Amino acid sequence: MADAPIYRLEGVRKDWQSAGTRFTLDIPSLAVARGEKIALVGESGSGKSTLLDLLALILRPSEAASFAFQPNGAAPVAVGDAWAEGRSDALVRLRARHIGYVLQTGGLLPYLSVRDNIALPRRVLGLGDDGTVDALAEELGLKRHLAKRPGALSVGERQRVAVARALAHRPAIAVADEPTASVDPMNATRILDLFVKLVEGFGATAILATHDAGVVDRLGLRRLGHKLEPVDGGVRSSFWG
Amino acid sequence: MVAGLALRDFFHEWRLSLCLVLALASILAPMLVLFGLKHGVVTTMRARLIEDPAIRQIMPASSGRFEPAWFRDMAARPEVGFVLPQTRAIAAAIYLRNPAEAERAMVTAELVPTAPGDPLLGTRAPAPAGLDRIVLSQPAAAKLGAKPGTPLDGSLTRVVRGQSERVSLPLTVAGVLPLASFERDAAFVALELLVAAEDYRDGRAVEALGWAGTAPLGEGRAFAGFRLYARSIDDVAGLRERLQREGTEVRTRVAEIETVRSLDRNLSAVFWIVAAIGVAGYGLSLASSLWGNVDRKRREIAVLRLVGFDTLRCVLFPACQAMAIALFGSALAMAAYLGVAMSINRFFTATLEPGERICQLDPVHFAAAGLATLVLAVLASAIGGLHAARIQPSEALRDV
Questions:
Q1: Residue whose C-alpha is closest to residue A134's, from A123, A144, A143, A145
Q2: Choosing among A14, A15, A89, A170, which should be mutated to test the B contact, i.e. which has the most B CBs within 10 A?
């Protein structure tokens, strides 16, 4: 069981409209093994974020022939069925426990201190302080900012807080959506390196969306197959692997 | 944990929170003043009517014959506030003189029977007991230069077989009524003194006072009239009808009572129409501003959903903030109301009696207003929160 993939998707599709264009995201087949580091590489508008949202259980697929999520030893969860049956609170609990998400920007609560922002997922789960928050702050160079509000930090610092928060509850999967898109290149490299290093340290699975193919080799990620093609009145994006 | 987060957000965004609190207070405060005025005016009006004994009085239109059983029966009725026998008007007069004020004129006062519970006396004067205590009306007291404790000479006259006779009796003033209570020269006395005066006038003996005459009447004496007060203004019409059915013609002020009651009804109707519009407007504005507040926080709630807030927590988060807005807003509105009410009441002090207020709300009204605000605010926000929880976090997060 321990070797069962953490995600196994077959025939998952998401349709949406944006600015009058119809988009389709197709995932004919996707399997992610435990502890793997996955990269979704593509231009903006290629559906990377959409796939991340599907995998992070915050977006309902239009169609899911099979969407098995097995974050721990327990039986796999049929995510497509859970959405279809409206069990959104069950999905919320799965996400809270097993997934950490680093958004492209923002996502920090302005009224909480950096420490409270990082500790938020732990508090939601009712976990006590086991030193993880401080360890993450140390690793990410946030020690001296812990008492500050996010508004007092630079964009790069805020993204490091977001990384810390995504990992604070030691999730099985850490998802990051171009976390360094709005950070200067030197900081961006450092943040991505730290992210992958920390995920490895926790033995978690990493899924990173980026438009920079260069990071794939540098960080030793597995790049998913991707195709973007115009179809009748819209765009179809496919990811597989 | 949710409440803590919600309040930290509430105080972090203190400018917006203050706006919402002020918006709530600015609608609630005038509503409270409106209700306070309605309640105060109507209460004062009713209290005055109920307290004014004259308007509750039922007077016999002509003299009749009322047996003791009739008085017992009347006194036992729940709609009767006070009833006492009254002797013939011609027999109920007494000459009063203040021996200490020689130059003062003699006063001929009508004798009015009284007893504890007399609404004319109320708490203004003690009911006189015995054959030597009297309560004077203000005009009589003024003419006699009398005040409580003043000894007076009283005298009664009669004509027996063509001979004019006179008896005098020493009296002590037990109290003086205010002018508003009784405007004619009158002496309020215990019924037994009135009965003694009538007996003397009729040529009968009054043993207690040593007055000679024919044999006194025994029990079962009938009276020519009565002093009758309904318990409340609402009982006057019923009592009047009952007495008319029994064949007793009476005079009442039902027409006046009906005028005031219809005024009260119409005034209430107008107030309720204004209030209904106000309450509806208040409810809509409160609900929409709080709904809008939740809508504004959609992305923030989506972030909370991202870190694992379930539907209940998403509903509780804005509901807690709504609770804070409702509590602060209500408190502010009530403080504003108290200030305005105090000014209004002070402005009208001249036309009010002590203890009366033109703008008044009872604690139960404050509680009702606060509770209604709280329930409405929480409900509107909770629905907003539910709505926010239904949106997929992904949509709200990307929608920047």
A1: A143
A2: A89
